[in-house]
UniProtKB/TrEMBL annotation, chain A:
Protein name per Swiss-Prot or TrEMBL: Methylenetetrahydrofolate reductase
SUPFAM superfamilies with a match to the protein in the record: FAD-linked oxidoreductase
Record carries keyword rRNA-binding: no
Example of a GO cellular component annotation carried by this entry: cytosol
The protein's required cofactors: FAD
Reaction catalyzed: (6S)-5-methyl-5,6,7,8-tetrahydrofolate + NAD(+) = (6R)-5,10-methylene-5,6,7,8-tetrahydrofolate + NADH + H(+)
Organism lineage string: Bacteria, Bacillati, Bacillota, Clostridia, Thermosediminibacterales
Gene3D superfamilies named among the record's database cross-references: 3.20.20.220
Similarity comment text for this entry: Belongs to the methylenetetrahydrofolate reductase family.
GO biological process per UniProt: methionine biosynthetic process; methylation; tetrahydrofolate interconversion
GO molecular function list: FAD binding; methylenetetrahydrofolate reductase (NADH) activity; methyltransferase activity
TrEMBL record, chain B:
PANTHER family: 5,10-METHYLENETETRAHYDROFOLATE REDUCTASE, METHYLENE-TETRAHYDROFOLATE REDUCTASE C-TERMINAL DOMAIN-CONTAINING PROTEIN
UniProt superkingdom: Bacteria
Protein name in UniProt: Methylene-tetrahydrofolate reductase C-terminal-like domain-containing protein
Annotated Pfam families: DUF5981
Organism in which the protein naturally occurs: Fervidicola ferrireducens
Occurrences of domain Methylene-tetrahydrofolate reductase C-terminal-like (ranges): 110-203
Length: 290, 216
């Protein structure tokens, strides 16, 4: 069963994020993929995440597909104009990649090629509209396509955001533009998901809660200070401070949260972003009983 | 206003390294306000260049440097000073420098300034970018705040997830334009205006270089 079928049939979906390699050595990517094969519904391949030069999300999605896993190809508007975005989407469809996650993209100043020209011709809403347009057999300019792609479109939302109403308005636009599922920014406070759930009751959409397992108290403090949209409550940081094995404790905290989310029916699945510690994902899956 | 910043003197000297006799032009409008091309700055530049052994054959504050007819008439009266010059150092914006260059095409024109943006004077010496000259003004539905300029990514359909405490992640000194727009529209009871999907800009309407003729 694919991601779409799992979500549409009311199942609790699990996706995990893998970062394409910086360079041509795909060993780690392939190993991490193999380790979660059959245990997750799909794998997200990031699109030059943090504006860092890497193998593209399309390239990595093809590699993942070759390993027998279902990819979610992330695509941002940061590096490509509408011609390139349409080409990338068509290329994905041509090799059988259906799941697309449309994002705005981090600004190049956060990356490792800071001198790059930021494109941002299409934002996340426009990318979704573009994909929807392609699915109707035409390009953005109305020209007919020879062969029509089929996509399952996704987008992101930040539950810990002030004012949250602004996130909901954008979410509604993304749904109007074709988004069927959302993967959220990482959450740690269950209240953030409860609030999002309440505010999206009117929306016909599937939401996968973002999970980043913590590796130390310092990591939590760093994210609270520097990463927009991420908030780790103090009682969680305290747990990490008091623990011997921080990584294991971080995974335990993540597993508890996942179980709470699942039992409380607060989301339709979870999206695990291990950011550099992908080898720990199978452990987390074990802890959750997935 | 076109906001300019004077190039470092070393860069100016590098451009002028094979030049001995220099004529300087300034501009009465934007560059004067930016303190990069008024009479005061011209005289300072004259002194600095003379210290480097250059000869200044003359100078003028064009009124303004981007007005081709005015600039031509003014420079015509400077014929003698210009004839003695091997180069013109233009202390205006990139437009002003090109206007001068098109009038005095036998003398090379060098820019003393870098042209940065269209902006406003917040107070003396403080300039802020306000318009990207996108060709289709969006201010009508955004409560007078330009998302093309004030949002670091120029987004038209609302914010990215990157705001923290209402500040932009790209430059935390800046407010998130979309939060400002949201707050203003909410106060005015016009949040509906945010809900409409904005298509991407039509870049075929702004092919460069643009030129327009307005009938009188």
């Amino acid at each position: 069963m694919g991601l779409k079928e799992k979500l549409e049939s009311g199942g609790f979906a699990v996706t995990a994020e893998l970062a394409p390699p910086k360079g041509t050595d795909t060993t780690r990517l392939v190993e991490c993929a193999k380790a979660i094969k059959g245990r997750v519904d799909a794998v997200n391949l990031t699109d030059f995440q943090s504006a860092v030069v890497r193998v593209s999300s399309l390239g990595a999605a093809i590699l993942i597909k070759q390993q027998g896993l279902e990819p979610v190809m992330q695509i941002t508007g940061r590096d490509r104009n509408r011609i390139a975005i349409q080409g990338e989407l068509l290329s994905a469809a041509a090799v059988g990649i259906k799941n697309i996650l449309a994002l705005t993209g981090d600004h190049p100043v956060f990356g490792d090629n800071k001198q790059a020209k930021p494109v941002f011709e299409l934002d996340s809403v426009n990318i979704l509209e573009t994909a929807t347009c392609l699915m109707q057999g035409k390009d953005l300019a109305g020209n007919p396509l020879n062969g029509t792609p089929e996509f399952y479109l996704g987008a992101s939302v930040t539950p810990h955001y002030d004012p949250i109403e602004l996130q909901i308005i954008k979410m509604e636009k993304k749904i109007k533009a074709g988004a069927k599922f959302f993967q959220t920014q990482a959450i740690y406070d269950i209240q953030d998901m409860k609030r999002l759930k309440e505010m999206t009751l009117h929306l016909d959409v599937k939401i996968l809660a973002g999970i980043i397992p913590l590796k130390s108290a310092g990591m939590a403090e760093y994210m609270n200070k520097n990463v927009p949209g991420i908030y780790v409550p103090e009682h969680i940081i305290q747990k990490l401070r008091n623990s011997q094995d921080k990584v294991k404790e971080g995974l335990k905290i993540a597993a508890e949260l996942i179980n709470q989310l699942k039992d409380g029916k607060l989301c339709d699945g979870v999206h695990i972003m291990a950011i550099g510690a992908e080898e720990n994902v199978p452990l987390l899956l074990d802890m959750c009983g997935f | 206003m076109i906001i300019t910043k004077q190039k470092p003197l070393e860069e100016i000297l590098k451009m002028l390294k094979d030049v001995q006799n220099i004529y300087i032009t300034g501009c009465s409008l934007c560059a004067t306000s930016c303190m990069t091309g008024g009479e005061k700055q011209i005289l300072e530049m004259k002194e600095r260049l003379e210290k480097e052994g250059k000869k200044i054959t003359g100078y003028v504050v064009l009124d303004p440097s981007c007005h081709k007819l005015q600039a031509r008439a003014t420079l015509k009266k400077q014929k003698n000073e210009l004839e003695k010059a091997d180069a013109i150092l233009c202390m205006a914006c990139g437009d002003g420098a090109q206007t001068v260059s098109s009038i005095v095409d036998e003398i090379p024109v060098y820019p003393a300034n870098d042209t940065l943006f269209i902006g406003e004077i917040e107070r003396m010496g403080h300039f802020a970018e306000k318009c990207r000259a996108c060709g289709e003004c969006e201010l009508g539905w955004t409560s007078g705040i330009c998302p093309m300029t004030q949002c670091a990514k120029g987004l038209l359909n609302g914010p990215c997830g990157g705001a923290k405490d209402g500040k932009c992640e790209v430059n935390t000194e800046n407010d998130c334009a979309w939060i400002l727009i949201y707050e203003r529209l909410k106060k005015a009871g016009k949040l509906e205006q945010l809900k409409q999907i904005k298509p991407p800009k039509d870049h075929s309407k702004t092919l460069h270089p643009m030129k327009i003729t307005v009938s009188r």
